[in-house]
Structure formats: C-alpha cells, structure tokens
Amino acid sequence: KALQWESAEVAYLLLAALTDQRVLLHSRDPLVAFSAASALRCLLAPLEYSGVFIPFLPAGLMPLEDARTLLFDCSTPYLIACETLLVARLGAVPDVAVVADLDRGAVHKAPSTEWFSARAPPVLSLCTELAACMGDCIRFRQSGVQVACLRFVVDVLNLGSGFLASSRAPADDAARRQLALLRTFADDVTSRCRAKGLGADALASLQRARLQSEGAILADVCDVALASAGEARAERLTADGGAWHRGGQDNWAAGLLGDAAPHA
User: Fold this and answer.
1) Closest to 85 (Cα-Cα) out of 72, 73, 70, 103
2) What's the pLDDT tens digit per position in 10-54?
3) Against a cut of 0.90, is the pTM above it?
4) C-alpha of 154 from chain center
5) Distance of CA 1 to the CA centre of its chain
6) 65, 38 in Cβ contact below 8 A?
7) Is the dihedral of CA 34, 94, 2, 116 positive or negative?
8) Are 21 and 97 in contact (CB under 8 A)?
9) What CA–CA distance (Å, rounded) separates 28 from 196?
10) If residue 11 lies in a helix (H) or strand (E), which one and from where to where?
11) Residue 68 DSSP symbol
12) Are 12 and 116 in contact (CB under 8 A)?
C-alpha cells in the first residue's frame, strides 16, 4: 500500500532483494517502515534472506556517523528500514542502494539495477499478476500479492518446469542438457551407494554435492547472461527520440535481469 499500488515497484523491490542489492526503506511512521521490511523479507519465500536484515533502525539508536557507515559503506547486501528522520539527518540517501520512500510511494533505483524492466518476461508476468490484486484499497488482496510473488520465486527456482525449462535460448538449452546428465549420473551413483549399504550420511553428502553442482551450472548461465547483456548495451543500444531499443541474445537469466525475454 505504501508504494501507491504500483505493481512494478513491488516487483522491482522483490528483484532487488533477490539479486543481493542494498535496499533501504524509510517512513515517518516506524510501524510502516517495520511492516514493509518484514513483508518484503517474507515475499522471498521459500528462500531465506541472507544479507543484513534490520527491520527497523531508529534514528537515535547509534551515532550519526555509524549510521552513515552502515548505510553508505556496507559492502554486504542489506535490507534495512528506518525513520525518514534518519535520512534527513544524513542529508542524502546512498546512491548505490535501492531506496524506497514509503510515505511518497517513490523508489530510487540503484545504478546496478538498470537491467530491470517491468515490460520484459519473466518480470512482466509477475507485474501482470500483481496488478490484478493491487491498484486501489478496494481491489487490494494481500493473499493475491503473496501468491504472485511465491509463484515467481518458485518458477525461478524450478528447473523442471519453471522459466529455465521454457526458454529456447541456446545457453539455456545447453544448461538443461548438463543438468539432465548430472541428474542421471547422480541417480546412478545414489543407487550404487544404496546397493553397497552406505548410510544416510553418505547419501546426504551426495545430495549436497548434486545441489552444489546444479548451482554451479546455473551460475554459468547467469554469467553468460550478464556478459551478453553488457555486450548488447555497448554495441547495440540506440537512442531514438529518447526511447531505448534493446538487442542481444535471449536467455533465461538475461530475461530475469530484464535485458532479454525468455520464451515462457
């Protein structure tokens, strides 16, 4: 509600938290600031927020210079809510952070999030679903917002039938083949271990190794997406009457980053 019913702003804050940005929320009302930070953290489910989380930072809790160091110089991703009074005393907001003024419904986008586009899949599907349960105080449905965000996060994580599965980009197709081979190999090794009578601890270690390998494959996909996005901006972005036109290779992760659309 504090974001003036804008579905794109909710999607942006969710993506900012998911991609380890520094996120600062502030309001004159401590309850609004605390509630917004707690709600954003909950919307990441089933993931857990791994950065610095401070649901409410009172203006007088620490010396002003310590607060400045925390908000401006912290190299770790954070999700912090504070009083607008603290921002006023600091005299500025961190340029590198995503900053949401909950009283005015305004969001300052960090330079590192220029990839975000509410009109590109898969974020477009999230914004569309959010818009159906937002817009004004009559149409707002809290459960609908929670379901939309949960569906989005699960589709990002679901390698079998989520965004990666529906992408037709060459890099994603190669990743899917690697994942299929990895799973076949892991299933074979697990069966052999069980046949040899290995205990639950050994099987749990195999499962952890499998998940780590899957994570490494997805990290490679994201590296391809980031490199592709950077090259596309450098070589193919052109200005036409103030409107920017995108070019570059479609990719599941690039679509998530807003630079290209997977074919979902």
Assistant:
1) 103
2) 999 999 998 889 999 999 999 999 999 999 999 998 888 989 999
3) no
4) 12
5) 20
6) no
7) negative
8) yes
9) 64
10) helix 7-18
11) H
12) yes
